[in-house]
Each structure stands twice: as C-alpha cells, then as structure tokens.
Write a structure and sequence with these properties.
Layout (H helix, E strand, L loop, with lengths): L2 H15 L4 H8 L3 H8 L7 H11 L3 H5 L7 H14 L4 H15 L3
Helix pairs in contact: 2-3
Length: 109
C-alpha cells in the first residue's frame, strides 16, 4: 500500500465532498495548485505546517484524515462478496444484476 497515494486520494475525496476546487483548497492552505495536485495523486506528501492548514481548511480531525478502515485486502473483499452472494443465492433478479455488473467490469473490449 502506497501511503502517499492513499493519503492523496483521501484528501481529494474530502475536498470534493466540501465542494472545493484544487485552486480553492490550495489557496486556503497556502500552496500552489500544482503542489496540491501532486499530493492528491500521491507524488509527494505534505509538510507538517501544510497538514495543520489542511485539517483546518477541510474541517476534519487528524484521526478522520488518516483513518483507512475503507481499505480492505483482496481476500477480505472476496469473503465479503461471497457472503453477499450466499445471502441472495435464491434471488435470480439480484444475481442477474450482479452478473451484469461484474461482466461490465471485467470486459476488456
């Protein structure tokens, strides 16, 4: 797991949730939009001073920003998917929808 990439994706997600453009957030935390872009794609990490400004600008706590409970390993994800499938194994319509979604996601055309 690339911590810079995970962190950057989280910053981007929260920024968008707050309806801020990169330019707006960059101005609030006193860095260039180019540097914010590098942070969001995981090319670089924030300095401590910038981190404090980021927390304030996004109105979040350190814990919220660094919480990564949404990240799951592949094996755990497969087990969760199998559990869902087991629960709906007799529901043809739901299975058909899942089939179409997985077919769409795996088609390489």
């Amino acid at each position: 797991m690339n911590i810079k990439k995970v962190f950057g994706e989280k910053v981007k997600r929260i920024r968008k949730k707050r309806n801020l453009t990169q330019e707006q957030l960059a101005e609030l935390i006193d860095i260039s939009p180019r540097n914010l872009s590098k942070i969001e794609v995981g090319d670089c990490f924030v300095k401590a001073e910038t981190l404090e400004k980021l927390l304030k600008a996004l109105d979040i706590s350190t814990e919220e920003l660094f919480a990564n409970e949404h990240i799951k390993e592949s094996e755990e994800l497969l087990n969760l998917i199998y559990n869902i499938l087991d629960k709906i194994k007799n529901d043809h319509k739901k299975l058909e929808k899942i089939y179409k979604i997985t077919k769409f996601l795996t088609d390489e055309d």
